[in-house]
Each structure stands twice: as structure tokens, then as C-alpha cells.
Automatic annotation (TrEMBL):
This is Siderophore-interacting protein. PROSITE patterns: FAD_FR. InterPro entries: FAD-bd_FR_type, FNR_nucleotide-bd, Riboflavin_synthase-like_b-brl, SIP_FAD-bd, SIP_fam, SIP_rossman_dom. It comes from the Bacteria. Pfam families: FAD_binding_9 (PF08021), SIP (PF04954). Residues 7-151 form the FAD-binding FR-type domain. It comes from Pseudonocardia adelaidensis. The lineage of its organism: Bacteria, Bacillati, Actinomycetota, Actinomycetes, Pseudonocardiales. Residues 278-310 are annotated as: Disordered.
Length: 310
């Protein structure tokens, strides 16, 4: 079996920060390693490593030459607890090769939202760091990798759906569409203040959904909207991400009720309600991951190109 090349480990430095919306913080990173950043796709993600204490270590073991991520992860877990940096997955919102910069958007949660801690760092160490990050601070970074495990086959249009933790990837995906491409996009956010202006060369039907004071993951707004929607005719490719149980519900609807081919649905649980990335995956999540990998192995057209974002 052919191994992937080892993922590069980098050190990135905060250049500046900007509040995109009341609950979304954009941090621009630079540094010598960013000049060597090699993008792999519009929904690419990286692992970021946050120090457990101010000024603490951000280094992790080197990736094996054969690209064996499982062996690398074992070495990471064997690091002493006090020195092992927190690891979280984040989408690259934008890459500027001329300025040698990358942008990463962080969701900042508080109040009722603070019950969640997931792939976007809800109320966890990543969001806490991002809320006060200042120029000159440094993080470790591994990657990039592409998020989706299924590649689009021939299709007439795309369905893209997720919550605010997915907005960086949705923004990058929408911006990458060709002028001939069509997409219907559903995004769940707290309220109108969290909506962002997204531009695209393609034909995009963007539908914002407001959950109000409900905590992320506790609303059915996203699933309800997709269920009720009148969608375009013709074969579709669906890209779904966000809270894991919501993503599963969307996938079941599209496959069982809309008749979209299972292999035409790329799905990723970015985070899990009341659980963190440090918690072990559930049996259902393990089974779904095995199914995706089996499908990818059976079909060269939908080969795996990365690992899930969560």
C-alpha cells in the first residue's frame, strides 16, 4: 500500500488579528515556514498545536518518513502531559503566497454556547487562545491536508451545508467554484450579525439559518431547512460538515430520502456536542470512518486524500 508523503511540521507566528463578526476571530499567520506552505485544496485543514501554558512547548514528534499518521499520533500521545500541546484541526480560510500569509478563522463562544467544545475549538483551549492572541505569539502546525475523503464525480450541482464552525471551509469552497458551477449552500449561525459576505464566480444560492439563543448542535434549523428545500434537478455532490450528529442526520436524509448516491456525499464531523477532540470516537463514528475508507479504496475516482477534520 502506497504511503502518503509525511506531513510537514511548521512554526507559525501571529501577524495580526481581526474580528470578522462578533463571534468569529480571524488570525493571520506568517513566518519563514509559511513561505513554504503548499496548498492542497479549497477545504484544506491543518493541525494547530497550542501551548498548555504561556510560553510552553509547541513542538511535536516528527512525522515518520513513510507518512504513517497512526504511528505519529502514538508518539504524540506518549509525550508528557505537561509538555504535550493541545491539538486542534482548523481550515485554512485563505492563503496569500505573495505575502507568505495564511488566515485561520476561530469561532469564539460564550454564554449558552459554552457547553460545546469540538473541532472548531468551542469553549476550549483553542478558542481561549484565539480570543486574546497577539502579534508575535507562535503555534505549531502540521499539514495541510484536504478535509473531504470523497472526490466529486460527474454532477450537475453541489449542496454545501454546515454551521459556523464550517464557515471558513464553506467560504473557501464557494470562492473556488468555476463560473459554470452551481451550488446551494445552507449555513446555520446564531443570528444575522454572524452572517458573512461570501463571493463566488459560480452560481450560488446562499441560505442563512438563525438558531437564536439555542446552543450550537442543539438546533434542528439546518436539518429542517435542507429537508424542506426544493433542490435543483440532476445529479448532486454534497459536502456536509459541522456537529457530528447533525451531519449524520443530513447524510441519512440525502441518501435515504433524496436518493443522492452514498459515494456522492462527503461528510465530516468537525465537532461533537458535549465532547472534545480529546475524547475517543464513538462506535458509530468509527463505523462511518471505516465505511468512507472502504468506499474510497473501491473507487479510484473517489480516492481518499486526507483525514477527517475532527
Amino acid at each position: 500500500m502506497r504511503r502518503r508523503p509525511p506531513l510537514p511540521h511548521s512554526v507559525v507566528e501571529v501577524l495580526r488579528t481581526r474580528r470578522v463578526t462578533p463571534r468569529m476571530q480571524r488570525i493571520t499567520f506568517g513566518g519563514p515556514d509559511v513561505a513554504r506552505f503548499a496548498p492542497v485544496g479549497p477545504d484544506q485543514h491543518v493541525k494547530l498545536f497550542f501551548p498548555r501554558r504561556p510560553g510552553g512547548p509547541i513542538d511535536v514528534p516528527a512525522m515518520p518518513d513513510d507518512g504513517d499518521v497512526g504511528r505519529w499520533y502514538g508518539a504524540y500521545l506518549r509525550m508528557p502531559d505537561e509538555d504535550r500541546p493541545w491539538m486542534r484541526s482548523y481550515t485554512i480560510r485563505a492563503h496569500d503566497p505573495v505575502r507568505a500569509e495564511i488566515d485561520v478563522d476561530f469561532v469564539l463562544h460564550g454564554g449558552a454556547d459554552a457547553d460545546a467544545d469540538g473541532g472548531d475549538g468551542h469553549a476550549g483551549p483553542a478558542a481561549a487562545w484565539a480570543a486574546t492572541a497577539a502579534p508575535g505569539e507562535r503555534l505549531g502546525m502540521l499539514g495541510p491536508q484536504i478535509t473531504r475523503l470523497r472526490e466529486p464525480g460527474p454532477h450537475a450541482w453541489k449542496l454545501i451545508a454546515g454551521d459556523e464552525s464550517v464557515l471558513p471551509a464553506i467560504g473557501a469552497l464557494v470562492e473556488s467554484l468555476g463560473a459554470h458551477e452551481r451550488a446551494v449552500v445552507f449555513v446555520e449561525v446564531r443570528d444575522a450579525a454572524e452572517e458573512q459576505e461570501l463571493t463566488s464566480p459560480g452560481r450560488v444560492d446562499l441560505r442563512w439559518l438563525h438558531r437564536g439563543d439555542l446552543a450550537p448542535g442543539a438546533s434542528t434549523a439546518l436539518v429542517d431547512a435542507v429537508r424542506a428545500a426544493e433542490l435543483p434537478e440532476g445529479p448532486a455532490f454534497a459536502w456536509l460538515a459541522g456537529e457530528a450528529s447533525v451531519v449524520r442526520a443530513l447524510r441519512r436524509h440525502l441518501v435515504a430520502e433524496r436518493g443522492i448516491a452514498r459515494r456522492a456525499v462527503s461528510f465530516t464531523g468537525y465537532w461533537r456536542l458535549h465532547r472534545t477532540q480529546d475524547d475517543a470516537p464513538s462506535e458509530e463514528e468509527i463505523a462511518e470512518q471505516a465505511e468512507v475508507l472502504a468506499d474510497a479504496a473501491d473507487s479510484p475516482a473517489t480516492g481518499a486524500r486526507g483525514t477527517a477534520g475532527a
